[in-house]
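Board notes (copied after class):
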Amino acid sequence: MRLDPALGVFRFLTGVGGRATWQAVACLPMRLVVAKCSVTYTGRLDAHLPPATRLLMVKADGCVAVHADGGAYKPLNWMNAPNHLDEQEGRWVVTNPKGESLVIEIEEILSDTAHDLGTDPGLSKDGVESNLQELLADRPWALEDGLEILEREYLTEIGPVDLLCRDSDGQIVAVEVKRKGEIDGIEQLNRYLDFLNREPTLAPVRGILAAQAVTPQARTLAVDRGITWVEVDYEALKGMEGRAPRLFEV
């Protein structure tokens, strides 16, 4: 057993086939590693990143992401939770239940830090997105005939699902509401589905991404993830009668 005081991480060293292997026992939620590395992904489409200096990010929910210095938020490669990270000396192997693998060969670690970010208050939606969620909660059938609302902002371990609904066949449906549907919205919903489908009282759970516009890339990824996407007209929704009770029915 060994304590790394710089990272606040307890680790132990074991021998596997004559090689030393580091395994994390407990660590702070967010870990940031700057390293010279190469990355190989094996799964739906095989991909390889040649050696270069990159940022490796291990998030609190277990997501492992590989970032370059260019671009904005999107990583070069990543693997969402649930997954298993086997951290070996000079090598990370990340696998998931779908049979995909992300192998990171590390030549040199330049920085290795961990930070406790605490509890995130969640995203504060802008007026249009917040209103769109409220309108859809009152008119879920606008997304699909027979859809009914069960709960708004349904809490999971990784954040709230915008709308938890039930379809006409009795299946639970998780709805993520965005002003513009992009790849990150599909990935966010997919993470929620992973957690919701672990609940025996809810599973099987399917997903719907609802947005005023959905990009072609998001549509393609949605099909790959088995997620339905729906474009909604904000002005038309406002003109539809909702389910809110009225004092006098016309």
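Comment from the instructor: The first strand starts at residue 2 and ends at 4. The chain has two domains: 2-115, 127-239.
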